[in-house]
Amino acid sequence: MAAYAAASYVAASRLQANRHFLSDVVFGAAVGMVSAHAAALGEQHRLAAIPSIVPVGGGIQFVWVR
What we know:
By secondary structure, this protein is an alpha+beta fold. It is built from 2 helices and 2 strands; from the N terminus they run H-H-E-E. It has helices at 2-16, 22-41, and strands spanning 46-54, 57-65. The termini are far apart. 0% of the residues are buried.
């Protein structure tokens, strides 16, 4: 819970300082939560996060690996 509180504080401070858009904060939170969940799944299921870069931007692809 302390990690969520710290992350929420940082997110709120970034928004208040006009350093990030709300979409940046929401996407960052989603990536963090999915990554934490994937790490906690263990051997039963595996979720891979694959960064992708294209000429007009980039992103992260999440894939279930069996």
